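ARCHIVE CARD
Drawer: 12
Card no.: 0347
Subject: one protein chain, sequence and derived structure
Cross-reference: see card 0346
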Amino acid sequence: MIEENDDLTNEQHDEPQETITRVTGMYKDWFLDYASYVILERAVPAIEDGFKPVQRRIMHSMKDLDDGRYNKVANIVGHTMQYHPHGDASIADAMVQMGQKDLLIDTQGNWGNILTGDRAAASRYIEARLSKFGLDVVFNPKITEWQASYDGRRKEPVNLPVMFPLLLAQGGEGIAVGLSTKILPHNFIELIDASIKHLKGKRFTLVPDFPTAGIADFSNYNDGNRGGKVRVRAKISQLDKNTLVITELPFGTTTSSLIDSILKANDKGKIKIKKIEDNTAAEVEILVHLPSGLSPDKTIDALYAFTSCESSISPLGCVIEENKPLFIGVSEMLRRSTDNTVQLLKQELEIKLGELEEQWHFASLERIFIEKRIYRDIEEEETWEGVIQAIDKGLQPHIKHLKRAVTEDDIVRLTEIRIKRISKFDIDKAQQKIESLEEQIAEVKHHLDNLIDYAIAYFTRLKNDYGEGRERKTEIRTFDDVDATKVVIRNTKLYVNREEGFVGTSLRRDEYVCDCSDIDDIIVFTKSGKMMVTRVDSKTFVGKDIIHVAVFKKKDKRTIYNMVYRDGSRGPSYIKRFAVTAMTRDREYDLTNGNKGSQITYFSANPNGEAEIVTINLRQVGSIKKLKWDIDFADILIKARTSKGNLVTKYSVKRIELKEKGVSTLKPRKVWFDETVQRINVDGRGELIGEFRGEDKLLIINQKGEVRTATPEVTMHFDNDMIVLEKWIPKKPISAIYYHGGKDIYYVKRFLIENENRVESFISEDPNSQLEIVSTDWKPIAEVVFAKERGKDRKENLEVNLEEFIAIKGISALGNQLTKDKVNQINLLEPLPYEAPEEVHADDLEVVDETEVSGDNSDSKKDSETDDSQTTLF
């Protein structure tokens, strides 16, 4: 701080005088006080009861006001302000958040909507009271520790005796000074089950469960500790070929924020949609209408990649313990909460035992006092001390069985017994009361001796009483990463100026290449044998004389490049085949031997490993005898792009002509289905479906009796009710038995797929119809188990050969009636042996083994012309 000294004379005022005041101590004390207050009294919940201070004071105020009826929230907020040093707005907001969790507070009125983000009505319009669960597990004044409120006028609880892992059930979030906390909500029933497992000494695992449902991947949850991550997704399904429906939200989003993110992605060209309808009421329903011709599966992945339909949550378990922040995982939170519950139950039992023993003590004294007529001993006493002494003396012969000494307070209570009660005293009833108290005392002592069993029974009661309707909402699933480049909409056009060596989206006067997106990479080959991968931009120089340009697919093992090049200005020509799976962006690679003047004389890019036949024409020089011959690229092994290649000729090549287009030289692509992520893949994860060529398709049948075929793509989505997923053999019939709801009859049918790439139903449209069994075996056998009819013996099970039972008919045919008798169930048995006809393909004779290309990005060349090392492609 700088201060000018105004008392100086004009002569002394030539230069301003400065004084410096150090603020270090002031800053240290004030800031530390403020930080401590925010951490301990506002933002972070206590581990003992799971409440932040404002939440604890709200619960205490609601208990003060509780009379079984609803109270206006404004009234509860005003009452809470007696304990809470902040304004009504912070209290009302905290109370609304607690009410929306539907656990401790029974609400009435418009409390907002966590699905749409709509706010609650004003606190004067909505009402609340404590829920039965809240009254059951949160309060017990006998075991509550009390402290003075902020102004000293009232008493408030230090911590509430919560006998349930409430913090994990509700979750908690807060930002303090220098730290924050984010504890995700967990499932009510799973928490109780985990507590019981802990009490039994068994292991348990906990993962969150969100009120907005959705799908979540908890593989990196890390027990809720710092560094963990949870991926959450909306539940998206296909309503029809041009409509998607979102029925569940990822945690942390609302329908409004989700729709906004979809519209922004559409405006940026990442996805393409026609319109969005929000029909959300009690349940989420957002309809996303797609333009015709757009793949619904790719659009679902694009929604996950570019919108809030998928988000990542980073949990951070931070709580207050003994006035200090503590970073802790959810498993340890549950253990401590469960152990704390056991101790609270013990305190309750000890207090109850003391009360019962006190009741038994006085009931025994009362019986002695009346049965032995000790009250007559005080008739002649004139002083209070004499009365006390007379009663004490009269009791002495009869109190040896009591569990504690008789005090003066006990004798005073005996003197307060009314004459009417003495005259109507029933010895038998008194004895029954004493025996009942003894039974209760014995029961409480048993619970104390078997405290863990008592705690397990307590948690089991909570589950039975309050667990209905609290089943898990969030589906647990492992996610595959969405490759954004595969699902992004190609929203711009790519152009090339081959001669000048420019590619980009702004070269509209030059040659059009293809549609692309702004996140794509472009692969470019030039005549000089150079190759480069670069990001899509408006205009990029990559090298003159471009011979090939395309969108680059990372890890693409099936696109094979066929090439012939001249080594140097007058050197020999070499032939090679290679794939490009990975590269460093904007780095130039030389595909030739590196000699000056080298040039590519023939080049082709083949998306499915095709191998063409070319004709080599030599120049007439000297005494060359053979000037023309054919080369089949199928005879050339697929190697690394750094390989030198095989020698074609040492003479000068005049030209190379395409003689015959080729077929794929790659083995059929193996496709697997990973049930964990409900996706197909070519990486060997899950169950092998089959080997697929370009024309092969998948056969998909679901429980609703719908069948379709589809080209296998890794972006495909599959519903949970899918029952058949296999390689489709067009001539192989599908057999089915279904129940016709309208006719109350079981029908058998066999059919072939008539329309490819279209969803068709093969059971009746009656809403009560349902598919019983379906088989894709050549000769399926079904077992019919009949129901027992009254007064008749049960019919023996019937085995049905479906191939003999009915001929192959159209998919829309009704089928043949299975039986007129009542059916209990239908089972699919082992099929009859049948040798299926072998599939024959034209390219079976020309197959090159598919193994992975080495990811060598170096420019090193081979010394040998023939290059003995073999690197082949998958």
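Annotation on reverse: The domain at 230-313 is CATH 3.30.1360.40 (Gyrase A; domain 2). Residues 491 and 517 are 5 Å apart (CA to CA).
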